[in-house]
């Protein structure tokens, strides 16, 4: 991975992009798409599920978050916080109409075109700042608060891209996005632990008598199983709360959201099928899984049928 400051070469050194305003915007979007393809191998495929006229805006959102995410993963605390503060300043300037950096040239255009709310980008930065300062969560409420900044803004931005701003729909989106983030945490327990990040709530570990030493030793005894059952049940509950969202939004976005919901819940099922041993059997989707899920996502009633097969707390 290249250091974030090298992403855009001389542009990062303060050189302005040349040409007419439209050419400048097109060039900025091109840089965002290039970044998305370079740092997320599935971006070209994922973007196909978004209407063509909104793919550039999606790339700009991704590029904004990608830079901040990479900064949060750099070594050292003070330097990272300073870079995130500088990125936040550029965001504020962007919404005030002052843009030079290609990400914000693209983001400004997308924000104006689709009325994207600045608060969602501010919340994303708040999550990245938490990543620098915090690698444990004392309880589930703390974890949910983190997800409210790290995951939920993305879903809200996707809805805004399609013109949805109804508060009830945003809450349903929050349920799905939080559930997806939690699923990723349970899927990546071992990977996060190798980076000294623990997303399992500490009070839940204590509740089941499962210590950090047990976690580092990757013990999967009954204590671990009961701990994971609790977290998986909480995640299923959030998925089910949000399951009606795809059928309540514009048709252009329905298949994408069905696929997102199905993909997340399928990972939960794989964790359960592996006896909750995510250390030795990290659940992932292969290409045939994606084909199967994509075909399912074409059917409007698929989510209600899928949810009925899962009993919360089972």
The pLDDT mean sits at: 87
Identify the CATH homologous superfamily of the largest domain.
Farnesyl Diphosphate Synthase
Radius of gyration from the alpha-carbon trace, in angstroms: 20 Å
- The topology string of helices and strands comes to HHHHHHHHHHHHHHHH
Proportion in β-strands: under 5%
Shape by Cα distribution: globular
Tell me what the CATH architecture of the largest domain is: Orthogonal Bundle
Instruction: Note poorly predicted spans.
Output: 7-18, 41-45, 308-314
What do you see in this structure?
With 314 residues, the chain is mainly α. It folds into two domains: 133 residues, Orthogonal Bundle (Farnesyl Diphosphate Synthase); 169 residues, Farnesyl Diphosphate Synthase (Orthogonal Bundle), CATH 1.10.600.10. It is built from 16 helices and no strands. The C terminus is likely disordered.
Summarize the entry for a quick read.
With 314 residues, the chain is mainly α.
Jot down its keywords.
314 residues, mainly alpha, Farnesyl Diphosphate Synthase, 2 domains, disordered C terminus
Protein topology:
Layout: H1 21-39, H2 43-47, H3 55-72, H4 78-95, H5 102-114, H6 118-133, H7 140-150, H8 152-161, H9 167-187, H10 189-194, H11 202-207, H12 212-216, H13 222-242, H14 251-273, H15 287-297, H16 302-308
Helix pairs in contact: 1-3, 1-5, 3-5, 3-6, 4-5, 4-6, 6-7, 6-8, 7-9, 8-9, 9-13, 9-14, 13-14, 14-15
């Amino acid at each position: 991975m290249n250091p974030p400051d090298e992403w855009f070469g001389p542009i990062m050194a303060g050189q302005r992009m040349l040409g007419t305003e439209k050419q400048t915007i097109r060039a900025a979007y091109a840089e965002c798409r290039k970044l998305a393809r370079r740092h997320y191998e599935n971006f070209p495929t994922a973007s196909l599920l978004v209407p063509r006229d909104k793919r550039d805006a999606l790339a700009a959102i991704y590029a904004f978050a990608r830079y901040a995410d990479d900064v949060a993963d750099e070594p050292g605390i003070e330097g990272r916080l300073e870079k995130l503060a500088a990125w936040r300043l550029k965001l504020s300037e962007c919404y005030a109409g002052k843009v030079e950096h290609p990400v914000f040239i693209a983001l400004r255009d997308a924000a104006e075109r689709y009325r994207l709310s600045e608060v969602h980008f501010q919340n994303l930065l708040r999550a990245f700042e938490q990543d620098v300062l915090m690698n444990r969560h004392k309880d589930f409420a703390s974890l949910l608060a983190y997800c409210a900044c790290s995951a939920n803004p993305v879903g809200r931005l996707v809805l805004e891209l399609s013109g949805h701003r109804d508060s009830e729909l945003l809450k349903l989106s929050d349920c799905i996005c939080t559930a997806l983030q939690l699923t990723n945490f349970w899927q990546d327990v071992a990977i996060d632990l190798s980076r000294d990040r623990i997303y399992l709530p500490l009070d839940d570990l204590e509740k089941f008598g499962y210590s950090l030493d047990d976690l580092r030793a990757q013990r999967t005894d009954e204590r671990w199983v009961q701990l994971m059952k609790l977290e998986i049940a909480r995640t299923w509950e959030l998925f089910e709360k949000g399951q009606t969202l795809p059928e309540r939004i514009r048709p252009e976005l329905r298949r994408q959201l069905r696929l997102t919901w199905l993909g997340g819940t399928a990972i939960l099922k794989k964790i359960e099928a592996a006896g909750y041993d995510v250390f030795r059997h990290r659940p992932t989707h292969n290409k045939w899984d994606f084909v199967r899920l994509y075909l399912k996502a074409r059917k409007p009633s698929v989510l209600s049928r899928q949810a009925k097969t899962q009993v919360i707390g089972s």
